[in-house]
Amino acid sequence: MAFEPKTPYLAVDGIINLQDEFGNWLGIVLIERKYSPVGLAIPGGFVEVGESVERAVIREMKEETSLDVVVLRQFRVFSKPDRDPRFHTVSVVFECVARGNPKGKDDAKVAKVFSYEEIPFDSLVFDHREILKKYLSDPLAVFKRL
Amino acid sequence: MAFEPKTPYLAVDGIINLQDEFGNWLGIVLIERKYSPVGLAIPGGFVEVGESVERAVIREMKEETSLDVVVLRQFRVFSKPDRDPRFHTVSVVFECVARGNPKGKDDAKVAKVFSYEEIPFDSLVFDHREILKKYLSDPLAVFKRL
Q1: A44-46 and A40-41 strand pairing
Q2: Would you say residue A3 lies in a domain?
Q3: Is the dihedral of CA A134, A123, A45, A30 positive or negative?
Q4: Beta-carbon contacts below 8 Å between A and B
Q5: Which residue of A has its CA nearest to B8?
């Protein structure tokens, strides 16, 4: 290819709101990362060439948490150059919902649901603390609406 | 670097709502592209490594239209693999406002404002027809709110 732009890496992350069989919101699914940087994180991963961001987030949620999510909306793009300590990664963050039991797989050692009141902000890696704070204060967040 | 993900290229595009000195909305700024694919387009360009998407759209709007825009919000991410005929490019589209006279520069042969009723949808390249149709039907679009 003659012209090859050099741009940041593109990732997706999914804020999964987990519901029980009675329609109650249990909280948000977080994973314990297997690779550096280790710590708790919203599940996510890199977008593949030829894949839309919506397909990417559905694939990554399945790979890391075993959950089949429904994507509700694009929440927001996070792009600060230092948000990923390895290199510049831009992430499209989605609001998702799911029902079932999360099970850590692939890059995730463990996947676990944390109630909205008990999110361990200080254990979150990358800028996921900022992402989740923004999400929890969003009046349109699904667990506040239904 | 040990681990190098291969992801789509990342771009930004700006839907610039142009206002006159009386506070009237004149329409949207489009450019005539100098390079392939030629045709009319929303101004935009690739994000540089080390640059946030917000800075990238401000820079690109200045380079292509000479306008100093104010970014109102992230509108939406467009990521269909075939949206750019050259390679897979994911674009973060912003809603912007500006006042002044657009002047084509850089990759833009001409920059011109089109009233909301006179957008030449059939001359638009990439998926910019779809982007602008979605934007014009958005109840939150700034020219409908103020």
Answers
A1: unpaired
A2: no
A3: negative
A4: 78
A5: A49
Contact A79 B49 (CB under 8 A): no
Rounded distance between C-alpha atoms, residue A16 and residue A69, angstroms: 7
> Would you say the ipTM is above 0.95?
no
* Identity of the residue in A7, A49, A77 whose CB atom sits nearest the CB atom of B74: A77
Cβ atoms of B133 and B52 closer than 8 Å: no
Q: In this predicted model, what pLDDT tens digit does every residue of B100-142 receive, in sequence order?
A: 999 998 888 999 999 999 999 999 999 999 999 999 999 999 9
Which tokens sit at B102? 């657009």
The chain B residue lying nearest A80, using CA atoms, is B52
Whether the CB of B2 is below 8 Å from some CB of chain A: the reply is no
Residues of B with Cβ-Cβ distance to A34 under 8 angstroms = none
Give me the phi and psi of B121, to 5 degrees please: -55, -35
Amino acid identity at B31 = I
- How many domains would you assign to chain B? 1
Instruction: Tell me, yes or no, if A80 comes closer than 8 A to chain B by beta carbon.
Output: yes
Flag whether residue B48 sits within 8 Å of chain A, measured between CB atoms: yes
Mean pLDDT score of chain B: 95
Dihedral over alpha carbons B126, B129, B134, B140 (to 10 degrees): 100
* Residue A59, CA distances (Å) to A42, A56, A96, A113 in order: 14, 5, 13, 19
* Average of per-residue pLDDT values in chain A: 95
CATH number of the domain encompassing residue A45: 3.90.79.10
Amino acid A107: pLDDT: 84
Q: Domain span at residue A117?
A: 15-141
